[in-house]
């Protein structure tokens, strides 16, 4: 069986052409040999509605992802905190399947829980309140009904506020909470866990109720990054060259 690849927090945008080029090469090279590719949130730096698909940068990028899907690789996308407005319709146009945040998969005989990871950062109370607020269905519908220019202004303002808060928050607050990890693992029957969001790539082992559970944290692609390759022998983080 062909391996399954995982990536997260790519934050692709026209302002970072080098990493965009590396992602396009990833689609043509490493990902072509996989059976499936899972993008666990924040493929794009921002997404303020499906009319973003008409922008030349996004149109080209999503066409390249569709090319990978057309080659026979199953491509799945999970919402992140930057692109949670990405719809199932837009995903389908790019050959991707939109999957829920927190979903289980059987990978080479190992039950695996997939998450973006932000819901595990429960110490960041302000962020969790904000997350619950902006994802209310009624608010989303109202936002998407606004003219594009207004949505861009609101999105830019929220991004600046978020960046300012990150500069003053203690790093530990923005990391996962151990109790939240244990609750997720216990609730889902002690699986392997793969997630992103924190930009702290690592492999961890959590002993929950006497059971050892593996947790992989995916890297962001702001500077160099990596992806996770899973097969019958286990998982390995592969740095980008």
Task: Give a verbal description of the structure.
This protein is α/β, with parallel strands linked by helices and 241 residues long. The protein has one domain: Purple Acid Phosphatase, chain A, domain 2 (4-Layer Sandwich), CATH 3.60.21. Helices cover 34% and strands 24% of the residues. It contains seven helices and eleven strands. The chain has helices spanning 17-28, 56-70, 88-93, 125-134, 137-144, 148-168, 178-187, and strands at 4-7, 36-40, 74-78, 96-99, 103-107, 110-114, 192-195, 202-208, 211-217, 226-231, 234-239. The protein has a six-stranded mixed sheet. Strands 5-6-7-9-8 form a five-stranded mixed sheet. Strand 5 (103-107) and strand 6 form a beta hairpin. It is globular. The two termini are 25 Å apart.
Quick synopsis:
The chain has 241 residues and is of the alpha/beta class.
Can you lay out the helices and strands and say which pair or pack?
Blueprint: E1 4-7, H1 17-28, E2 36-40, H2 56-70, E3 74-78, H3 88-93, E4 96-99, E5 103-107, E6 110-114, H4 125-134, H5 137-144, H6 148-168, H7 178-187, E7 192-195, E8 202-208, E9 211-217, E10 226-231, E11 234-239
Parallel strand pairs: 1-2, 2-3, 3-4, 6-7, 7-9
Antiparallel strand pairs: 1-10, 5-6, 8-9, 10-11
């Amino acid at each position: 069986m062909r391996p399954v690849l995982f990536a997260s927090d790519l934050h692709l945008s026209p302002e970072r052409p080098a990493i965009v080029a590396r992602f396009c090469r990833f689609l043509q090279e490493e990902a072509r040999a996989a059976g499936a590719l899972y993008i666990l949130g924040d493929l794009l730096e921002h997404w303020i509605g499906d009319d973003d698909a008409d922008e030349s940068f996004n149109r080209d990028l999503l066409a390249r992802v569709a090319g990978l899907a057309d080659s026979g690789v199953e491509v799945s996308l999970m919402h992140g905190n930057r692109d949670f407005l990405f719809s199932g319709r837009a995903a389908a146009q790019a050959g991707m399947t939109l999957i829920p945040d927190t979903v289980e998969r059987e990978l080479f005989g190992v039950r695996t829980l997939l998450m973006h990871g932000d819901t595990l950062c429960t110490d960041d109370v302000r962020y969790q309140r904000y997350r619950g607020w902006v994802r209310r269905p009624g608010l989303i519908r109202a936002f998407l009904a606004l003219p594009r220019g207004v949505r861009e202004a609101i999105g830019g303002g929220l991004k600046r506020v978020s960046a300012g808060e990150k500069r003053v928050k203690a790093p530990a607050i923005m990391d996962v909470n151990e109790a939240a990890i244990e609750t997720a693992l216990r609730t889902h029957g002690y699986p392997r866990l793969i997630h992103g969001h924190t930009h702290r790539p690592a492999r961890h082992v959590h002993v929950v109720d006497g059971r050892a559970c593996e947790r992989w944290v995916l890297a962001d692609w702001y500077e160099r990054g990596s992806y996770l390759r899973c097969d019958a022998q286990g998982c390995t983080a592969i740095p980008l060259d």
